[in-house]
Design goal:
The protein is α/β, with parallel strands linked by helices. The chain is 58% helix and 10% strand. The chain contains 21 helices and 8 strands.
Length: 443
């Protein structure tokens, strides 16, 4: 097969995995320009494609080409567009830092820093804890356990901690791994009788970052080795930072002794961001990527992408790529057309009044009661539930939501949402109640 035939075949495999829409937009404009010595060179139209592919599908192209040609390949992207001097300067700095870190055996993403992490009420506690740890590794909060849903910035935050720690003290040894990589290395070390090398690698670092620890659930050997690694580092006062998609008490497939270790330090959660934070994220990312985006489009993205920051950033990059390819400036109509397979505009039709009416009917109280300032026991829970559901369905700010429920401030709304979310995880009957309300509000 020639290069064109290899790429067509690979595209077919990619389309089977991610669908036609994403393949048409992100993969069809790519050209396979060379395969030599198990290295595949791919020409991409601009940096938006390169960034999006590296962040979202780092292995998909390599796997698809490899299965087509019959041997594994390493993929390299080459930008064929003439890049602005400022962009070239930024990319050069990132690449220089990446190589510097790699030369020390530290594979941290140089893009993940505290400077480009947008802080809001939903993540400010976790951010403050991470910054404190970066300044005094092993002495502030050890271990630091950060948990939250998919795409809320956990990887960014723990990587930023590692980057900041190295900036403050270049002699520090920082090791970042995913739990999948840790598991694979445990299996390989056991299979090839190299546990001594494994222990040397993991127990001699100053800062250990383990991402997505929930994936070691039900993996007995991995949990056993992590337990001993944890103890060895902790006894030497070395910093341990762990991320997860759930809190330690919810990790029932993790051994009790490991969960107790997680609780020895500080546990910080990241909640889905409120609209103000999402808007700031869109504008910050647009500035970093030099994408010109009007305020009404930024607000459209922030209000329609409900909870996942990764998806929010992906939408922005997609708009940047579309504008770059077509030469058309970004406006709301263009955004709606480009993102129609991602964003459901019908969600905006759910009003606060509809949510309040549904909640009050369910609890048997009057809408006037939930909107009043009264603090009676009969009204407190329905009001908290109402605020929680409004945050889920509405694009209103926390302060605005509070005004609809007795003039509460944004801190009260955050507290109410956390109380409801915590109770849902502990009380199955209460969780069913919320699920029923969710179905009533949006059938």
């Amino acid at each position: 097969m020639n290069l064109e035939e290899i790429w067509i075949n690979s595209l077919s495999k990619i389309e089977d995995k991610i669908g036609t829409g994403a393949t048409e937009l992100w993969f069809k404009p790519i050209r396979l320009s060379q395969i030599k010595e198990k290295q595949a060179i791919l020409d991409v139209p601009n940096r938006f494609f390169k960034d999006w592919l590296e962040d979202n599908h780092p292995d998909l192209i390599a796997e698809s080409i490899g299965s087509t040609v019959g041997f594994p390949v390493i993929v390299y992207f080459r930008i064929v567009e003439t890049t602005e001097p400022r962009v070239k300067e930024i990319e050069l700095k990132l690449e220089t830092r990446r190589q510097m870190l790699a030369s020390k055996g530290m594979h941290l993403n140089p893009k993940y820093t505290f400077e480009n992490f947008v802080v809001g009420p939903s993540n400010q506690f976790a951010h403050a804890a991470a910054k404190s740890v970066s300044e005094k590794p092993g002495r502030s909060y050890n271990p630091l356990f950060i948990y939250g849903g998919v795409g809320l910035g956990k990887t960014h935050l723990i990587s930023a901690t590692g980057n900041a720690a190295v900036d403050k003290n270049p002699d520090l040894s920082v090791l970042y791994v995913s739990s999948e990589q840790f598991t694979n290395e445990v299996v390989s070390a056991l299979r090839h009788d190299r546990m001594a090398e494994f222990k040397e690698k993991y127990r001699r670092v100053d800062v250990f970052l383990l991402d997505d620890i929930q994936f070691i659930a039900n993996k007995t050997a991995t949990q056993e080795e992590f337990f001993h690694t944890f103890n060895a580092l902790y006894e030497r006062q070395k910093q341990i930072i762990i991320s997860s998609d759930r809190s330690p008490k919810e990790m029932t497939a993790i051994t009790d002794r490991l969960r107790s270790r997680f609780s020895m330090g500080l546990i910080a959660d990241i909640q889905p961001p409120e609209i103000e934070t999402k808007l700031a994220i869109v504008l910050k990312k647009a500035e970093m990527e030099m994408i010109h985006i009007p305020e009404d489009v930024a607000y459209y993205l922030a209000s329609r992408v409900k909870s996942n920051i990764r998806e929010l950033e992906g939408c922005l990059i997609r708009l940047g790529a579309q504008a770059s390819l077509t030469g058309r400036p970004i406006d709301k109509e263009m955004a709606q057309n480009t993102l129609r397979d991602i964003i459901d505009d019908t969600e905006g039709l759910i009003t606060i009044e509809h949510i309040q009416k549904t909640v009050c009917e369910y609890f048997g109280i009057k809408v006037l009661d939930i909107k009043a300032k009264k603090r009676t026991k009969e009204v407190a829970l329905p009001r908290q539930v109402g605020m929680y559901l409004t945050k889920k369905f509405s694009d209103k700010s926390l302060s605005e939501i509070g005004k609809y429920f007795g003039g509460k401030d944004h801190a009260t709304v955050i507290y109410a949402c956390k109380q409801i979310e915590d109770r849902r995880t502990k009380d199955e009957a209460f969780n069913r109640l919320i699920e029923n309300l969710l179905r009533k509000i949006k059938p």
